[in-house]
Amino acid sequence: MPVKVSQKVFDGIEAVRQSGLTNMLDRNYVQALCDKMGFYEAVIWIEDNKKEYARAIFEGFEIKEEDSYAK
Questions:
Q1: d(Cα 20, Cα 16) in Å, to the nearest integer?
Q2: pTM for this one?
Q3: Looking at residue 21, what is its pLDDT?
Q4: Which residue, among 14, 12, 6, has the nearest Cα to 62 in the 3D structure?
């Protein structure tokens, strides 16, 4: 079952994946690259959700729906 994340978190993780600069299992370097690329929300999410990140590497990420009234 895919792990649900916000669009911003997904964009950061996907940018690192597409860059090919690291193995996605190297969580610390993924965070460093997200930081370097300006995806700060992804850095924080990965730090706060280590187990979910590891699970998502194998099961996938899914973008969660944002509340339409939340801005």
A1: 7
A2: 0.90
A3: 98
A4: 6
